[in-house]
Amino acid sequence: MDTHISPFEVTLNGFGSFPHSKHPVLYIKPEQNNHLNELYHRVQREFNFINYSFNPHITVGYRNLTFENYWKAWQIYKDKHYKTNFLVDEISLLRHDENWKIMARKKLSLSQ
Fold first, then answer.
1. Which residues, in sequence order, are bridge partners of residue 11?
2. Whose CA is closest to 10, among 35, 40, 38?
3. pLDDT at residue 23, rounded to an integer
4. What are the extents of the domains in the chain?
5. Considering only the top CATH level, what class is 8-107?
6. DSSP reduced 3-state for 111
7. Please, which residues have CB within 8 angstroms of residue 36's CB and are 6 or more apart in sequence?
8. Which terminus of the chain has fewer CB atoms gathered within 10 Å of its CB, N or C?
9. Nearest-CA neighbor of 84 among 36, 7, 15?
10. What is the pLDDT of residues 13-28, one digit of tens each?
11. Model confidence pTM above 0.90
């Protein structure tokens, strides 16, 4: 995969949720980011993924979160202010075997 992508910044801004009755998710929302979208499309093309919807987020609660506890937490976090940013200078390929395991890492480098 062509990883000649310059490192880029992602800004996280607020909380969101997927209120699925069996597997609800609380997450932190990134602001719209063209660099992140381009990285997703490059990975999609390289690995010939089906065109899934792309909902970037950082999961805060999921696997052990009952719907009742999700609802309680969402009432606390839905209007809570949270904003920060970080530099994306590396991507990782992960596999889930009971826990997430890093299979490979790739540093992002300046475009040539």
1. 85
2. 35
3. 86
4. 8-107
5. alpha beta
6. coil
7. 8, 10, 30, 56, 88
8. C
9. 15
10. 999 998 887 889 999 9
11. no
